[in-house]
Write the structure tokens for this entry.
Amino acid sequence: MYVAITRAKDHVFISHAQSRRQWGNIVYNAGSRFLNELPTELTKQYDLTGDYQGRTSALKLQEGDEVYHKLFGKGEALEIRNNQVVVRFDNPKYAMRKIPINVLEKI
């Protein structure tokens, strides 16, 4: 991780999973203590889960629709498969990413 941070030019995105499924059970994870050692004036935290729980079925998204992500901005849904969406974002810095459908808004 040290190399990635020291070679970053503008931004570094660091994330951690608060929970994950392991052998059929949900395991809750605390963030690394390294995250707490970062100076708060240099960091910005994003809650990418927010109030999106259960929105997967309510969002009628189709390929070609314009979408919005609260961190990456506007983009176009290119492919939808298994509640994952391949999005080409308008900002070339973010390019194309595979995003869970429940964290997107249809524009």
The beta strands are 19-22, 25-28, 66-69, 73-81, 84-89, 96-100, 105-106.
